[in-house]
Amino acid sequence: MTHHIDPIGFIQSPYKEKFAVPRQPRLAPSATSRLKLVGEANSPEAVRGIEQFSHLWLLFLFDQNLEAGWRPTVRPPRLGGNERIGVFASRATFRPNGIGMSAVELKGVVQEGNQTYLELGSVDLVDNTPIIDIKPYIPYSDSIPDALGGFAEKEPDVLNVYLSIEAQKSLASHPQKTQIEAVIKEVLGQDPRPAYKKGKADAKEYAVNLFDLNVKFIVDSNSVTVTAIDRF
């Protein structure tokens, strides 16, 4: 049996490509976002009472990966990208039905003319990711303090991030300078490179698209240096 699912909205986030996205939503707290509701879901009635909840579950589609299919085993970054485990023992993006879920902070509901938005805290979603459902986060049932986290028991290590003089000059006149600098440091501090390069110096210059910027950087064994920042 098959079932057709239509998005109820689309995320508007600073992450313009998969390379930039943190592996969990709360790892880049400065990167706020919003959810634009569409179709019949675009109604104040559909979200009436939602402000009672501080956090929400977002169910979404890994739309950029759907055509690639999936395999029974994957190589999680937290295991260095070398050890295989079952796809259902992971949060891998390549899944049988391409469905993901994230717990996110709800900051408020905004009505702009006929358009309804949910203002959110940080997310781990690429800009324009389709959302297929929203459910309130219920602390007494959804939070399990003594739960085991398997291979992801601890938070990942974070690298120090420094902006070069050139990068600082490029960012100086940007109207969102303070937030953008914080997001750059939070995102790059997690080292978005392939898992097998973690903890290793690398002469290659990488680039990631955040907001309306292309951010170039290099990584040594314990820090990241932003070498240049260019507008799109």
From TrEMBL:
<dbReference type="InterPro" id="IPR036414">
    <property type="entry name" value="YaeB_N_sf"/>
</dbReference>
<feature type="domain" description="TsaA-like">
    <location>
        <begin position="5"/>
        <end position="146"/>
    </location>
</feature>
<comment type="subunit">
    <text>Homodimer.</text>
</comment>
<keyword id="KW-0694">RNA-binding</keyword>
<dbReference type="GO" id="GO:0003723">
    <property type="term" value="F:RNA binding"/>
</dbReference>
<keyword id="KW-0489">Methyltransferase</keyword>
<dbReference type="Pfam" id="PF18389">
    <property type="entry name" value="TrmO_C"/>
</dbReference>
<comment type="similarity">
    <text>Belongs to the tRNA methyltransferase O family.</text>
</comment>
<dbReference type="InterPro" id="IPR040372">
    <property type="entry name" value="YaeB-like"/>
</dbReference>
<keyword id="KW-0808">Transferase</keyword>
<dbReference type="InterPro" id="IPR023368">
    <property type="entry name" value="UPF0066_cons_site"/>
</dbReference>
<dbReference type="InterPro" id="IPR036413">
    <property type="entry name" value="YaeB-like_sf"/>
</dbReference>
<dbReference type="InterPro" id="IPR041369">
    <property type="entry name" value="TrmO_C"/>
</dbReference>
<protein>
    <recommendedName>
        <fullName>tRNA (adenine(37)-N6)-methyltransferase</fullName>
    </recommendedName>
</protein>
<dbReference type="InterPro" id="IPR023370">
    <property type="entry name" value="TrmO-like_N"/>
</dbReference>
<keyword id="KW-0949">S-adenosyl-L-methionine</keyword>
<dbReference type="GO" id="GO:0008033">
    <property type="term" value="P:tRNA processing"/>
</dbReference>
<keyword id="KW-0819">tRNA processing</keyword>
<dbReference type="GO" id="GO:0032259">
    <property type="term" value="P:methylation"/>
</dbReference>
<dbReference type="GO" id="GO:0089715">
    <property type="term" value="F:tRNA (L-threonylcarbamoyladenosine(37)-C2) methyltransferase activity"/>
</dbReference>
<dbReference type="Pfam" id="PF01980">
    <property type="entry name" value="TrmO_N"/>
</dbReference>
